[in-house]
Amino acid sequence: MLRTAIRDQGPKPSRPQAVAGKVREKATTPRAAWTVPKAAPRVSALAAPTAIRGDSVALLCALMQERSSVADLVSVLRRELDRYSPGGKLPSSRALVDRFRVSPVTVSRALAQLAAEGLVVTRPGAGAFRARPRPSAAPAGDTSWQEVALSADGAADLVPRSVDASGVLASLAAPPPGVVEFNGGYLHPSLQPERAMAAALARAGRRPGAWGRPPMEGLPELREWFARGIGGAITAAEVLITAGGQSALATALRALAPPGTPVLVESPTYPGMLAIARAAGLRPVPVPVDADGVRPALLADAFRATGARVFVCQPLFQNPTGAVLAPERRGEVLAIARAAGAFVVEDDFVRRLVHEDAGPLPAPLAADDPDGVVVHVGSLTKATSPSFRVSALAAHGPVLERLRAIQIVDTFFVPRPLQEAALELVGSPAWPRHLRAVSAELRARRDAMTSALRLRLPEITLAHIPSGGYHLWPRLPEGADESALTSAALRAGVAITPGRPYFSAEPPAAHLRLSFAAVANTGEIAEGVRRLRAACLEVWGG
């Protein structure tokens, strides 16, 4: 028998007074429109609250009730669609409100969900209708010609234009349910400032002109905020607002290096940067790093051997090693690049993910560069949310105009509401509180993962424990198979990232990159390491 009543927080016929957690109503208060008749069994398992202790509790209960009611109504209507022929009209919204004892909002949301599923069609002023069956899929075409078209000019390319995005996807793809996420590249939702971002976006949306076209270079106030964070002689006029660090790096490489030329990169380095370079037709040339960052002597050798005009580096908490460029090497790196007539692209991606015990941070390289050698990339994304894609490019001299031109051609501008929200967020009291909380939590998670690895997996080597960022870079035993271990780990219920994609040439040893920021808590870290141990035993034996 069809169940025909759904109870939700629809409009009440009276205004009962809440006192000390109890509801008092007048004897004459009508209740028929608020009480479900006994003859009509409820679909919703969530009854309307009868005691409200505060506005926040009432709002939470109302939201929970509304979501439950929408889902229940969708389920009922989906089953009833077979009663109507294709194109047949469903009962009116008012009839559904009366029948199921729900609010008009619930009916509207339920019909919108069915429309999104392609089951109904809504027509303003006419109502909702059962959707007509979709035509059968057309026979598959023959796309084999594309293999020839995509490779026809390949012989003339100095660098293949095909891109291996597997290293990037490893940190972007969500693992299956129940799998511990040691391969994530962003903060767990519990660490993200979701409430502060929501409040900032709400305030930003009410600003006059918030939905208009922003300046091509970005909002002046936001450019000024990024300039202050960089320091040195950088001014707001030398900052461009971009849509995330990945976009900024792509703009920088396209502006600074013509296709077919070499670009020097740290080894190991961020796979997304390698993918950007290869997509632009550039040839990444590795320069090894150690615990103190890139090795200046090898950097000078690489410039002389290749004639490269660009070096991309992460001087602070390098991805994946976590190394910080040593103070004595900073000036040397800039001098070597200046002598080679080359630019240094500084990817300052995790400055705001410093750990609680890190101490004072070195300034960005751009702050010590009066000659325009450094093109600086800074971002808010890592410290907020993967969807909060606001970053900055900063540079001295004529190169700024080239960066600006390429960015405008590629993206026009970053949406103004997002820029306004960024201004609201970083200017709010919640911002420094969030950074302090994340700093303490990342230290605790780093220590938890380090201790667990040393206890359960003494076979691996942790040469460097970073004081910033969100990952560790353990070296595997000699002869270990990264691919086999990655597959075994996933079977054991933990997702890890193999080290091979972080090298632009043959790697000197097998590594893993293990993230401690994308998991829920330190307990999940301990469980993930336990599962990783089981995977190691499967692959290595013992």
Tell me what the structure shows.
The structure is a single chain. β10 (about 310-315), α11 (about 325-340) and β11 form a beta-alpha-beta unit. By secondary structure, the chain is of the alpha/beta class. α8 crosses α12, α10 packs parallel to α11 and α14 (about 430-455) packs parallel to α16 (about 520-540). Helix content is about 40%, strand content about 10%. Residues about 10-65 have low confidence and may be disordered. It is globular, with a radius of gyration of 29 Å. It has an eight-stranded mixed β-sheet, sandwiched between helices.
Walk me through the topology:
Elements: E1 17-19, E2 22-24, H1 55-80, H2 93-100, H3 104-116, E3 120-123, E4 127-130, H4 145-151, H5 166-172, E5 180-181, H6 194-205, H7 220-230, E6 239-242, H8 245-256, E7 262-267, H9 271-279, E8 283-290, E9 293-294, H10 296-306, E10 310-313, H11 327-339, E11 343-348, E12 374-379, E13 391-394, H12 399-411, H13 416-426, H14 430-456, E14 471-472, H15 482-492, E15 494-495, E16 497-498, E17 512-515, H16 522-540
Parallel strand pairs: 5-15, 7-8, 7-10, 10-11, 11-12
Antiparallel strand pairs: 1-2, 3-4, 6-13, 8-9, 12-13, 14-17, 16-17
Helix pairs in contact: 1-3, 2-3, 6-13, 8-9, 8-12, 10-11, 14-16, 15-16
